[in-house]
């Protein structure tokens, strides 16, 4: 089974109740739920939460809810621990992580990631982009195009073999990097990110993104 997991705890410091804050008229988490519903390859998906209000909104949007222990919703709880909890109650062959804070998922991006993962034989896949941002003074001044850069995971889609997570690891020994267009790369951590994502999504909904991907 290919399981999708959407983790959504109730606590959020930078943006209170972030996972259910309205984004273009929908609670933020609903965008990820709808993306999971549109996937052809995800067999089952759950919203992992400890929060009753989030659970109610998720169910109203058609999602299955997996209540997690309160200790897995603290500031110190890791995503690996949350995914381990899901694996402890379900038999899974492939796990797909969809974070609500990366709501822009169009053009079948989830299934593209799953297909790449299955075809490559890797044990961990992350979407992202090549970053040429470095600490000031770390590289000499020069054209950005000449910098080699490094792959930066963008938080949009992660795919795992369960054994990696069960071993307590975030990245396995055979990882795959999937570079994707910049419209997908924004991850909501601050209110400024929220505004930026809303602006991009307005263009996506109008179909303007067709010329970008």
Structure commentary:
- By secondary structure, the protein is an alpha/beta fold.
- The protein has one domain: Spore Coat Polysaccharide Biosynthesis Protein SpsA, Chain A (Alpha-Beta Complex), CATH 3.90.550.10.
- Helix content is 30%, strand content 23%.
- It has helices at 28-38, 52-60, 79-89, 109-120, 162-166, 191-205, and strands at 2-7, 22-23, 26-27, 44-49, 64-67, 94-97, 124-131, 150-160, 175-179.
- A 7-stranded mixed β-sheet has the order 5-4-1-6-8-7-9, with helices on both faces.
- A hairpin with a 2-residue loop joins strand 2 and strand 3.
- The model has no long low-confidence stretch (mean pLDDT 91).
Low-confidence spans: none
Number of distinct beta strands? 9
Task: Report how far the terminal alpha carbons are from each other.
Answer: 30 Å
> What global shape is seen?
globular
In the CATH hierarchy, the architecture is: Alpha-Beta Complex
Instruction: Please identify the structural class as seen in this structure.
Output: alpha/beta
Radius of gyration: 17 Å
| Main pleated sheet | 7 strands, mixed
Mean pLDDT: 91
Summarize the structure.
By secondary structure, the chain is of the alpha/beta class.
Task: Write out key terms for the chains shown.
single chain, 213 residues, alpha/beta, Spore Coat Polysaccharide Biosynthesis Protein SpsA, Chain A
List the helices and strands and how they pair.
Blueprint (H helix, E strand, L loop, with lengths): L1 E6 L14 E2 L2 E2 H11 L5 E6 L2 H9 L3 E4 L11 H11 L4 E4 L11 H12 L3 E8 L18 E11 L1 H5 L8 E5 L11 H15 L8
Parallel strand pairs: 1-4, 1-6, 4-5, 7-9
Antiparallel strand pairs: 2-3, 6-8, 7-8
